[in-house]
Design goal:
With about 190 residues, this protein is α+β, with helices and mostly antiparallel strands. It has one domain: 3-Layer(aba) Sandwich (Aminopeptidase), CATH 3.40.630. The protein contains seven helices and seven strands; from the N terminus they run E-H-H-H-E-E-H-H-E-H-E-H-E-E. Helix 2 packs across helix 3 and helix 4 runs antiparallel to helix 5. Keywords: Acyltransferase, Transferase. Its EC number is 2.3.1.-. GO terms for molecular function: acyltransferase activity.
């Protein structure tokens, strides 16, 4: 007899709930991204600061024992934010200021979306993505993801994300990234 997969539910998280689950969320992030130990401690202050930004929202997938299976969050992208300025510089250098203004004038930054490795490949990422973006008032959504064939890439392509900037290297990270975007709302 095979075991039945555990039930899963999706919830929106308040800022307080996000803070209470931060350790759990960062553990998923480190595992999903295959980052070295110690990364969570480095990222925790940044994630807490993100939760204070305009338009911030978060969603989570919970198993039947209320453990975090997946997490996604983002906020309204604006000038002066580190990611915004990095992407603006890259798009402007490669495609020109007009293209940068078109993409970065009115967008939601999908900052993080991660599913515990053992739970990947079951639609959780897409469910989190759709729930997070449902009702976002911005005209576009942008995200960055490491270059390479992955489940994340397949998900983003499946829901209509296109290339904004490819093979980009963010300051402080030697890996090439892609910046992907699409109009909102999702279909």
């Amino acid at each position: 007899m095979t075991a039945m997969p555990s039930a899963q539910r999706y919830v929106r998280l308040s800022g307080e709930e996000f803070r209470m689950r931060l350790r759990e969320a960062l553990d998923i992030y480190v595992a999903a991204m295959n980052y070295p130990p110690g990364t969570a401690e480095q990222r925790a202050p940044m994630w807490l600061t993100h939760a204070l930004r305009e338009g911030w929202r978060a969603v989570a997938a919970l198993d039947d024992e209320e453990r975090l299976v997946g997490i996604a969050y983002g906020y309204r992208g604006m000038p002066g934010q580190w990611w915004h300025e990095q992407v603006r510089r890259g798009v402007t250098d490669r495609e020109g200021e007009q293209t940068a203004n078109a993409w970065l004038g009115d967008y939601f930054e999908l900052t993080e979306i991660h599913v515990r490795p053992g739970g990947q490949g079951r639609g959780t990422g897409e469910d989190l993505l759709r729930m997070l973006l449902d009702g976002v008032p911005d005209g576009r959504v942008l995200l960055s993801t490491p270059e390479g064939d992955s489940r994340a890439w397949k998900l983003y392509r499946r829901v209509g994300f296109g290339d904004v900037l490819r093979q980009y290297r963010f300051a402080g990270d030697p890996r090439p990234f892609a910046v992907l975007g699409r109009t909102l709302p999702l279909d």
